[in-house]
Amino acid sequence: MHVHNYEKLWLLASLALIVGFISTIVYGAVGAGVVMVNDEGGQVNASGLSEHPEFNDPGVRKVGPNEYEAYVVAQQFAFSPDPIEVPANSTVTFYVTSRDVVHGFEVAGTNANAMVVPGEVSKMTVEFNETDEYGVVCNEYCGQAHHDMAGEVIVKEPGNFTLDDAGESTTAQATNGTDETANGTGES
Amino acid sequence: MSTPTESILNIGRTDDETALPAESFIVKYPTVARVVRVCFAYAFVALAVGGLFGVIQALHRTNVIRVIDSADYYTLLTAHGVFLAIVFTIFFLAGVFAWANTRSLERPPLNPRFTWLWVGTMSAGTLLSGGSILAGLVAEIDVSADVLFTFYAPLQAHPLFYIGLALFVVGTWLAGIDWFRQYLDWRADNPDERIPLQSFMVLTTMLMWYLSTLGVAIEVVVFLIPWSLGLMPAPTPLLTRTLFWFFGHPVVYFWLMPAYLMWYTVLPKLSGGRLFSDPLARVVFVLFLLLSTPVGIHHQYLDPGIAEGFKFIAMTNTMFLLLPSLLTAFTVVASVEHGARQNGGEGYFGWLTALPWRDPAFTGMMLAGLMFAAGGFSGMVNAGMNINYLVHNTIWVPGHFHLTVGTAVALTFMAAAYWLVPRVTGRALYSRPIGLFQVVLWFIGMTFMSAAMHRGGLAGIPRRTAEPEYSKFTFEAVVGTISSLRLQIAFGGVLLFVSLVIFLANIALTAANNEPATGLKTDLPPALSGPEQSPQVLDELKLWAIIAIVLVILAYSLPLWSIINGAGFYQDGITASPQVVQPVLEVLI
Amino acid sequence: MSRLSPAALLLIGAALVPIAIEFPVILTFVGIRNFSFGLSFALFGLVFLAILVWSEVADVIGSSAGS
Lengths: 188, 589, 67
What we know:
The structure holds three protein chains of three kinds.
Chain A: H1 5-30, E1 59-64, E2 67-75, E3 78-80, E4 84-87, E5 90-98, E6 103-107, E7 113-116, E8 122-128, E9 132-137, E10 150-156, E11 183-184
Parallel strand pairs in A: 2-5, 4-10
Antiparallel strand pairs in A: 1-2, 2-3, 5-8, 6-7, 6-9, 8-11, 9-10
Chain B: H1 6-9, H2 25-28, H3 30-61, H4 70-105, H5 112-134, H6 159-189, H7 197-228, H8 237-248, H9 250-265, H10 267-270, H11 278-291, H12 308-320, H13 322-342, H14 360-383, H15 388-391, H16 396-425, H17 432-458, H18 482-511, H19 541-567, H20 578-588
Helix pairs in contact in B: 3-4, 3-5, 3-16, 3-18, 4-5, 4-6, 4-7, 4-9, 5-6, 6-7, 7-8, 7-9, 7-11, 7-19, 8-19, 9-16, 11-13, 11-19, 14-16, 14-17, 16-17, 16-18, 17-18
Chain C: H1 6-29, H2 37-66
Helix pairs in contact in C: 1-2
């Protein structure tokens, strides 16, 4: 088969580019420790969340020093709890599921982002380094009032944070950061 | 010939075909020319409706002008997606493929009745699905299908929507059979010849389509139709999502392949040259057949219930899909440069001035290719498993695919129409300068809209939402302000709509033009490196089809098995028992 | 006598649009932030105007100088 020399060069450069792209992703997963949402969250019965030991009472729980778990239920057209309050300098593992249709759980401006599929639990671990307020957006069309579905993550001073606060509403108007203080990490 | 579509068959037919050269397509294959005209008519009507809804959305979500209720936004969004991404693209593809297969095999389809059967099936499907979407805007009719283009459970549409989709896909399958029969007929007469390039492209694309539509066929026929009719319980959402994306990514290559066919076989001629390499063109289409389908899970990087390893396999396959497009970039530019040098172009870049930039067909395809390069790289960001987390389901994604399907495909189709419509109507293009202005305007409009969408996505603004303004928080742009981005989206959307209206008017005036088309005699020139230089194995369609099937089995069997094992076929662990099938039995007995 | 045809001006104008849009981004790499899109468009509008004037006028000046 006749292949022009320039064509061969281009082919090799293309393959190098592709391998390069794949290596950056492998580095992101292995080196930087960015973990995907995967099948670790397991399955739940979407119509029986009220009998579930954790999702019957969505909220934040402390599971270790600076380690928290947040159980979040998405449904048309709200997240529960809202706002989700966590302390700064903590590692929070989110478990998110849906009561009805497919939703999204996106901490706006960060890479903390997951699909929320009824029957499945999306598990993701996020590090919160500084106090901040983030918007949470449902980014998957879920019905006629989809555009009203939003929540908040409030990262508080560790001194001001008590678990009893979780679930109470705050009056602060949030300005979310576009810096990436919230990052998926390998610690799970 | 008496068919239900008789009334629109005569759109743009010349008054006096005897005035045209005997070798022209329309004189040699009048029936196929009719088929192409009917397919284009459907495509352009869908383009008009979808485009109108597009500009309404662009103005609505940027809060510039709101003429509809936000709850109706999603009805328009569904129509925009289905009319443009399914009806416009695939009807246009059917027209291009019917033309290309007939032209390159030099024979019409065996049985015109069969040809009209697939046109009719696709039409019926379009009317059912399209009608059920638009019925959502009329409160009096209890039919709606506000499920968006991504029609997976648990959001449910009216059964007519799913039945229409199924009919439409069956129509495309019949069309493929028609083209394969044409090929087999040619093969019987030419046992030792290489498959003509355009026919090769049609056949490999259709093989890819048969393989990839299996997913959506199972989703729609086995799960969604029985569920929407109330005969079966709700299917597992993750299962229907996975089956949808099994089809949902290869469909983008189904849109793209007719554009590639034009870039490989018509664009070199327009530039005054010849295709650089026939063998490489065949390699590219074989790669698309092999790699288009086992990548769908890259739309599900953020889905729970799918192990990271399966996502990784989809990611590597996706990255290798970059290869055929990079090869295409080389071959197309090399062919065009060859053409420019034939016209007397010189120097490293000076040859660019020796190209027919005044020809809207040429300029349109070149601009489409240029934007596809940008779209390809934003696509690589989407494909990058971990970077994807920053942009998934943000407005970055529509920014990306308005460069690919919205420009690489749509602008190429519009440019191709300026060249093809005179060939299937026998009428001269109404205005080339207006055509040139139109394709450049599309480029400018898309530059505004798409760039701003990508930036909005980086700030986290979600896609597919009527009002991306929230009471509790605001978005913050990396460069510029969110309000300037919104203005750019709205402005770009308006330019695109104006461009679309100009295009449709130019085509309508062409269809009514009494001046006969000229230059119809010219045939497509052969490639510089001809098919005789490519290995025979490239034409072994059976072999490539089998390898493609094996790759799909490797990529999909384990993920599907683990989903079925974990969540089951039906939601909440319900097993479809005979009691659920009872209503069917009652009807039957 | 124009040096550039209307079609050439159209294509040059179109090519300036993406440059104008990306210009503020390029400036951030050299540390200039908050260069607004509006300013960028105004700047490249002037560039286009300059090209237009050059296209229309340059030949006239050239011919008058020669006479």
